[in-house]
Specification:
single chain, mainly alpha, two-stranded antiparallel ribbon, 2 strands, about 55% helix
Length: about 200
């Protein structure tokens, strides 16, 4: 059996042991990173509009433009994974891919494969094809809120983040990333309706 390789992926590996106080305040420590991630999201929306034009006319996204968009997702994932107390390594204020593994115990790697060729007309209807994916993403987001609360309480009591809760939160982010990458013109691969890596 072959394991499918998806254009957008998230890999997360960290020690489950977390200081019991961290779920109470870690989100507050993450505010500067979340502010940067929010600004990068705005930048990503602008770059996606530019990508729309390049795909319609050239059937591709220029590599520097693609790399800038991918960087915004990498930074966002590092900020979110810290804010959600999935690990306790404070993420660097860094935009290069090497920041994912620079001397940190938590490895929060996010990759998006560069497409050499994109369908010229798909940007005009991808958003419509993704409507069922949005319903699934909303349901997963709602389930993630309950999972996050459970994970925080369990960590405060036991000092360890529950493995299944963390796996679910990472899988939910991965699912949403694939939907965003599809609608955001980074891939023509329709996201699978599954939470597997």
């Amino acid at each position: 059996m072959t394991i499918p390789v998806h254009a957008a992926n998230v890999h997360f590996d960290a020690d489950r042991r977390i200081a019991r106080w961290r779920p109470l305040v870690q989100w507050l420590l993450a505010v500067p990173h979340l502010a940067v991630a929010n600004a990068l999201r705005t930048l990503r929306e602008l770059l996606t509009l530019i990508s729309l034009v390049t795909v319609l006319f050239t059937e591709r996204i220029p590599r520097p433009l693609f790399d800038a968009i991918a960087m915004t997702y990498r930074y966002e994932w590092r900020a979110f994974s810290y804010a959600l107390a999935l690990h306790d390594d404070y993420p660097p204020f860094e935009f290069m891919p090497s920041a994912d593994d620079d001397g940190h115990e938590a490895h929060t790697t996010l990759t998006i494969t560069y497409p050499e060729h994109l369908n010229r007309w798909k940007p005009l209807y991808k958003w419509f094809l993704a409507i069922p994916q949005y319903f699934v993403a909303i349901a997963l987001a709602l389930a993630s809120v309950a999972t996050l609360l459970y994970g925080a309480v369990a960590t405060i009591i036991t000092g360890q983040y529950p493995e299944r809760a963390r796996t679910f939160l990472v899988a939910t982010y991965r699912y949403c990333l694939r939907v965003e990458a599809y609608v955001g013109l980074l891939t023509d691969e329709y996201p699978p309706f599954e939470l597997v890596a």
